[in-house]
Specification:
The protein is α/β, with parallel strands linked by helices and 276 residues long. Helix content is 27%, strand content 24%. The protein has a 7-stranded mixed β-sheet with strand order 6-5-4-3-2-1-15. It has a 6-stranded mixed β-sheet with strand order 7-8-11-12-13-14, covered by helices on one side.
Length: 276
């Protein structure tokens, strides 16, 4: 009887320990500022979205130097404020590039992203889902309403020649994490009615929504996007980097309160990490 009781206590302790470990295995998201996020999954994989780590709004000027592990880099479109540090990080870490088809090719041919880290396996287009089995993640490209061009200084334009180069379609990403949240990064976009489909196809836990205005939707239009996607939480991004990006979280919260979504706003500061 004593042996059985001891075994029972040992098994109970093991179950509790495993449960505690599972509870501790959360998804960590770090916002560098602008649209740049790092996502560390419960399995330890690291995804980096739109890595402009040298953005002026990032308080840690050593972020790029400190970066160690990155498994995947996700790019939403080809504008310099979203891809600026991608090649350096890819070469440093061996990260696999996930990007729209045309952008992936230009990242290699124009900017020198390593060929073997940017193949057809992770270069596609809207509607495509990429099963990153080792990371325990599924990534789906969804639509965005924006531009996607390489501009100077990425393109050295000669007099009388075009100063931009097409860089594929702009996209957003829905990221489904095993044992973690479903995350929607809107990319740079205006609100569009097909966001209703994102809310139907996915149960979004955390939506990272551009709100700065001028180049993307402003807080009022972002509030409509949030209503259609219906996430549990929304984190405003792509605001305040420059004065022209004048939308702010307080305006988003006010616009959402009119739609009964005010309590869902999570305001992160550049350089902050949170568990989700």
């Amino acid at each position: 009887m004593q042996i059985r009781a001891s075994l029972s206590r040992a098994l109970l302790a093991l179950v509790l320990a495993c449960g505690s470990a599972a509870a501790l295995a959360q998804t960590k998201i770090h916002w560098y500022g602008h649209a740049a996020l790092s996502i560390e999954t419960p399995s330890g994989a690291v995804l980096l979205i739109d890595p402009w780590l040298s953005a002026p709004s990032n308080p840690d000027k050593e972020s790029l130097a400190k970066l160690k592990r990155v498994d995947y880099i996700l790019l939403t479109h080809g504008h310099w404020d979203h891809i600026n540090d991608a090649v350096e990080i890819g070469k440093k870490t061996g990260a696999i590039l996930i990007a729209p088809y045309g952008l992936q090719f230009n990242m290699k041919s124009y900017l020198g992203y390593p060929e073997k880290q940017a193949t057809l396996a992770t270069g596609g287009n809207v509607g495509g889902t990429y099963n990153l089995e080792k990371a325990g993640v599924k990534v789906t490209m969804v639509n965005a309403v924006h531009g996607s061009e390489f501009t100077p200084p990425m393109v050295k334009a000669e007099a009388g020649q075009p100063a931009t180069v097409s860089a594929g379609n702009p996209v957003g990403y829905v990221i489904q994490i095993n044992g973690g949240p479903t995350i929607y990064h809107t990319g740079d976009t205006d609100v569009f009615t097909d966001m209703k489909l994102i809310g139907e196809f996915f149960k979004v836990d955390v939506m990272f929504a551009a709100i700065g205005g001028h180049f993307t939707m402003d807080p009022a239009r972002a509030a409509q996007a949030v209503e259609w996607v219906n996430p549990k939480q929304v984190v405003p991004i792509h605001w305040g980097t420059y004065p022209i990006l004048a939308g702010n979280p307080a305006q988003l919260k006010a616009a959402l309160e009119k739609r009964k979504f005010g309590g869902s706003v999570v305001e992160m500061k550049p350089g902050e990490t949170r568990n989700f």
